[in-house]
Amino acid sequence: MQNIRKYYRFLRSFRDLEEKSAEVIRHHEVPLEWLHKKLRRNQFLTLSGILVGCTAGLAGVLLKALVHFIHLFITQDYHLPYQLLFYLIFPFLGILLTVVIVRFVLKGKDGKGIPKVLSEIAQKSSMVDPRKMYSQIIQGAVTVGLGGSAGLESPIAITGAAIGSNYARTYRLNYKERTLLLAAGAAAGIAAAFDAPIAGVMFAMEVLLAGVVFSDFIPLIIASVCGALLSKIILGDEIILHFRLKQDFNYWNVPFYLALGVLSGLYSRYYMLMANRVDHFFERYRGRVFLRGIIGGAALSLLCFFFPPLFGDGYESIKVLVDQSGASLLTGSLYVNLIQHSWAVLVFVGLICLAKVFATTVTISSGGNGGNFAPSLFAGAFLGYCFAYALSMAGWVELPIANFAIVGMAGAMSGIMYAPLTSIFLIAEATGGYDLFIPLMIVSTTSYLIVRRFSPYSLEVKRLVDKGQVFTRQHDRNLLSLLHTGDIIEKDIRIISPEATLRELVALIKISSRNLFGVVNDAGELEGIIVLDDVKEVMFNTELYDSTHIRQLMKNPPAFIDVQEPMQQVMKKFDETGAWNLPVTNGKKFLGFVSKSSLLNRYRQLLKDYSTSEEEL
């Protein structure tokens, strides 16, 4: 009897499943849409984290593999002078091809860089242009594959962010879930680039989600693990940055690691200042993209000609520096005959360290695509090598040069990217263990604290913070940045000509539900405002109806709001003037009014939507 009941329950469950499947088919729903409705929120987000992580991880693997194969294709066993000619041709070609792709294929509308993603989180409710799911791969492969001195991690992170954002948009997820999956896609991309899942999570939390309050990080972790796993399976250790420690950590070297941290912080500040100057130089050519590309391509080619390790993302040079020696980098360059001179090796490595910022910023600012992630690791490795090599060569102390080069990577990355946790865990995972965890913490935190003394934000992010276009760590400012002036303009305000009479104003008051009127001339420009309370004394005196004109009654508004003005500035104007309504203009053209009450209502609604209860999680 029990077996019969079990069999009956089995048939019943099978029939229920069949009916649900038929319902899905009838309503033309794809499986994930049906699952989205049937699963609990955290279950669906976990599944989404897996799918976004795998997709973003594959995109990262694809970009790394493309650049690797481009390098193999264009790199031959050249001998001098053909090898030097190679450095003059391909970097120049890479910049120009990228400019052509952006100009004619992408129509010049494809932004680049991590700050662009931060701006889209804050300004566009985490909605990323779908074209970035493939455009960054193309640009990054062309730029870096042909010798651009920049990193692939920025294009990979943007691609992953676009994948996560558009996945969320497809299933109509809300802002919090969309932001979470955007960060999950970027984390998976970073994890795939380095086979470092913890570093991917830390990157998302430190860089992308800075100032964003979240308590649900499971999809983020799962996506990062998926990205790293795919990278490990497909790429192995050949393309990924990976090291094996030759010497253990010696606690007697702690003072020297502390000194390296200070040096890394100072170098990071130098890096940011020089990058800013180079970027400002190319700003003058913003309207002439081809001239800018020619100048940048020529400058980059010359830098690669004199310093071949600047060619490409530089990971191979880092491996040579750590696993072999700085002298090995002189092979195939103009300075091959100086290998036997220790001081020449030190000068050569030091000059490369100083020149890296110029090569990277020229690559990015002149029209190439890439980021400062890999260059910061490159510069840190060369800085740490120079520091330890100089002390050892001077005979003051015998230091483990390879270890200092590895730890130097974390120091420079922490200071340049403002991401100490990401740098610590990235290098720890790249070395296959935590033997250098203590020096990594010392150097990274010291470097970070030094650069924070100069500025609370990294240089490229600070420009957007000053404009109110990215999140800060102040929660109220973050919520205000989600509001846009154009979205809360009240356009039901009645307008009247400055040449109109009081009689016309009284007629307008009869049909209006507002106590505020805009005085607008024939050109559509706002000349003043009329407040009902200010005209009560004269509006009942019929003798003045035809002799009194609006120009005599109007007054200037306490302040004007530009439609492009950030919401923090709008709130500041309301606070300073004490007004409850302010006019909005586009140039001189009148658009409507913004009321303080509607702005506060929208702010409270955002605060309510943004605060996720524990029951929802």
Automatic annotation (TrEMBL):
It is a multi-pass membrane protein. The chain crosses the membrane at residues 44-72, 84-106, 179-201, 207-230, 251-270, 290-311, 343-365, 377-397, 404-428, 434-451. InterPro entries: CBS_dom, CBS_dom_sf, Cl-channel_core, ClC, ClC-type_chloride_channel. It holds the Pfam family Voltage_CLC. Keywords: CBS domain, Chloride, Chloride channel, Ion channel, Ion transport, Membrane, Transmembrane, Transmembrane helix, Transport. It is found in: Membrane. Residues 489-547, 554-610 form the CBS domain. Gene3D superfamilies: CBS-domain, Clc chloride channel. Its main location: membrane. This is Chloride channel protein. It comes from Compostibacter hankyongensis.
